[in-house]
Structures are given as structure tokens and as C-alpha cells.
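Predict the 3D structure for this chain.
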Amino acid sequence: MKYRSTRGQTDELPFMDAILTGQAPDGGLFLPTELPDFSDKLDNWRDLSYTELAFEIMSVFANDIPENDLKEIIEKAYSSFRHEDVSPLAPAGKNLILELFHGPTLAFKDIALQFLGRLFDYILEKRDLKLNVLAATSGDTGSAAIYGLKDSERVHVFVMHPHNRTSKIQAMQMCTVNQKNIHNIAVEGSFDDCQGMMKDIFNQLDFKKQHDLGAVNSVNWGRLLAQTVYYFYAYFRATESNQDKLSFSIPTGNFGDIFAGYLAAKMGLPIKKLYLATNENDVLCRAFDTGIYKKGTVHHSVSPSMDIQLASNFERYLFYSCGQDANKLRELMEEFKANGELHYDISCDLIEAKRCDTDSTLATIKKYSHENDYVLDPHTATGVYVADLLAPDEQIVCLATAHSGKFPESIKLACGEALGNHPILDALSEDDMKYQVADAHTETIKSIIVKTLEEA
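Done. Predicted structure below.
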């Protein structure tokens, strides 16, 4: 299988090259040239384990990796998870909670980044290469990338996070991994500033090539591929037959998690609805409601990983919305770059969007704690709120994006007491944190990369 850029000005690449490249040289994002139809395979897949299912799906997309090697990569990736199902379903009221937080950092990003870390190790070893990963995070991607790559001998990891704008625990998870290949940069700005600088640096092709830069953010196709698996797995566990249709509710910031569900539906999974849940940073909700995608001011909330105004994976969805027309896609992205907004009808029958504000988030946490003895983290709570609002009489699979223990301040604010602690998080100490503070300028980040690699 080959991979093309959404902007149509990059040569098609095989899987391993697309993974190493990350963002396409023309500024676009890689997608498969065609999507498989798995409809006729669902019956045979229903009883597979998570790793068996992951292999069946991933092997179609990663067909330049020998099957036995791919199986080993997948098994290594998910051996670090604390639950044998990797992503189990838990009942909570009328809903089912898809627990995606049983990996090393207790966040859903582990599912993709443990796989991507092992995939990088494999490709770099095969090709005798080294890689310097540059990542931007609103909280959970950073720690998941660090834990996925901290033992990689051929990789240095540079993670930018918004200084003092993640939860304290998120910051400690990132900045207490004091291994020589891990470099944390606290940026005096927002996540959008971090992501914008990352994309700017990747677009400077000479610098990218000179310093062997790669991506672990969801601009990297490998992230999305890994995320499609848990939609299939949850569907098989939540339904009795492949004639049933199932809806999902997804807390949404950078559009990667819900886009993986969109891909799963395009590949034949019987999904009825994907409910897109945002917090006060509702640029995506407004885009689906009005057809206007317009950046606003970042609002800092109790769900900081969703405090995003520019969703990088929106471009992939937009590509499909305009009929996979790369020329049209480029026109739309140029319109957005010039005007700070674009006007285009992106609505579809599959996706319905709704906003959940802080009061509703906290009220949902309190309700589910008291009525169902289930402690939701504030991001997951937005998805549960939207599921209950838009489908009050229907069982919905709500994606739990993090363990509640990662956000003790918000849980205490909602419930009036400390709930949902986790021993891994309790062991973290601010005294062990190591990072450098930087201003939100691309040249500053570039100079940090150059100086660090010179001293390595």
C-alpha cells in the first residue's frame, strides 16, 4: 500500500517511509491511496484478542513489513498494558466506557505511541538510521511519546508543552523521565503555539533533513492506524452480531481520535454515529454546525488536553469532505492561512457535534461518581455529557481518554473529595522535574535542537 499527501505535491511513499517522514514535505498529511473494505472480515474477527485484531488490520496497511516482524512489534507494544484486553469496556449508567488508559502513562495516547515507538525502533534498526522526534503536546501526547521512546537508542525526543497550562501531573509525567535522549521544552504560550512551531520547523525541509526530524504527533499516520483498532475491538465487545450498529462519543481536541473512528466507518465498521464532544474551545463544533472553520482565542479549562483551536487532523477529514481533491484542499488551506478562517460545508450524516462547558463537565463527573460509582476524568466527562444529551435513550460507547487520577484538582472540584488516585501517579515528585523554558518562537526551538544534538 502507498501513501499520498492531502496536498498532492509529494510523491507517494510506502508505509515505512511515510512513518519516518511524518508530515509530508508539501505541508500536507499522509493518507492511504485507498482504504480497504473490511465488511466481509468482521465475522472472522469478532473473537480475536486485541493484538490479533491489531495485526489483521495493521498488516493491510504495513505490507512492507514481514508478517512475523509486525506481529512482534504489536506484541511488544501492548505487553506494557495493565489489562489483558488493552482497551476494556466498563458499564456506567446506560453507557459503556471504553477504557483507553491502561498503558504506561494512563492515557489513550499510549495505545498509538507504544506501537509507534516499537515501529520506529524496528525501522531505524533495519535501515541503520537515527531519528530526532519533535513533538507538541497539550498534555498526554508528550508523556506517552516519552514513555514510548525513552529506551530507544536511536532516537532523541524533543517535547514542547505549554508552560503551566497542562495539569501538574501531566507535567510531572513528562518532565521526570530524566534519560539522556529525552528533552522537555516548556513553551511560554499555548498548545497551538507549540503545534504551529512544530509544523513550521517540519516545513523547513533543509533543516528537517539536516537534523533527521520525525513526528509522533497525530500528523504521523502510524498514530491513526493504531487508533482505528480499538473502534473495531469495542464494536465486537459491545454488540452481538455484525448487523448491529453502534454509536461512539469522543472527546475531541486535535481531531485524531474521532478521525480514527471515521476511518473505521469508511472501512466497513457498522458505526451509526460519532458524537464529537468539545469543551469551550469549540472551533470544531462550530465548523460542523455552521460550515465556518475559524480560529478563536484559547480558553483554559478543566480539560486542558482539549484546549486547542487548530486541529491538525481536520485537514485529513477536509480532504475526504472535498472528494479527495488535493487541488481543492490546497485552496481551502490557503484560504485559511490568508484569512484565519475557511467556509466549507463539512457536515456529514456520521458526525454530530456538541459543546460541553466547564459547569456541565464537573456536573457530569459528580453525577457518575455518585450514581454509578465511576470516576470520569474531565475529558471523558465531555464525551459522556454529549452522549447523554444527544442520545438519552441509547447505549453509547464513550471513549475514556485518561485515568481520572491524572486530574485530581478537577475531580476534587467536582466531587468535593479526592477520588481516582493511582499509585503510578502518587509516586511522581516535582523535585525530579527537568525541563527548560523557552519563548514561543520557531528560531528558539531550532536553536535548542541544534545545541542539544551538538552536546549529545
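Residues 110 and 144 are 5 Å apart (CA to CA).
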